[in-house]
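Example 9 (inverse folding). The structure is encoded as follows.
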């Protein structure tokens, strides 16, 4: 398994270049490959939230990016995801390192995981946000 703290797995609105922060991510990273992790993807409203479940038989689908300047990029993306120091706790998301499965290997990547209760939110059965929102998120 490769461990590179400059890798980020995204599964929702950051996949879209119609989104300002999706454009920012694309300008400051390099797409590596598609991937997935065990868990569930929830419809939070205008965006998804993923919950990691190591023993799940369902997967969250997304993409792995290699960040050009991780500290700078995470400062911007943490603000977008509402987990900067200025945001009140408990944060809606948290950024964790987890194992992402790709077609050829497993990679340890940062991912923004949903941190609030999901009892009221519908599961996205495919685990693929692009399937319900199209390519434009």
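The amino acid assigned to each position is listed next.
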């Amino acid at each position: 398994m490769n461990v590179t703290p400059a890798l980020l797995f995204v599964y929702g609105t950051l996949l879209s270049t119609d989104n300002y922060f999706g454009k920012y991510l694309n300008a400051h990273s390099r797409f590596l490959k598609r991937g997935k992790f065990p868990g569930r993807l929830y419809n939070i409203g205008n965006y998804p939230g993923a919950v990691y479940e190591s023993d799940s038989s369902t997967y969250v689908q997304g993409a792995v990016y290699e960040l050009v300047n991780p500290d700078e990029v995470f400062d911007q993306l943490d603000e977008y995801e509402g987990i900067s120091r200025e945001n009140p706790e408990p944060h809606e998301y948290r950024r964790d390192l987890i194992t992402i499965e790709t077609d050829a290997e497993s990679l340890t990547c940062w991912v923004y995981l949903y941190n609030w209760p999901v009892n009221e939110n519908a599961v996205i059965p495919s685990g693929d946000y692009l399937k319900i929102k199209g390519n434009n998120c």
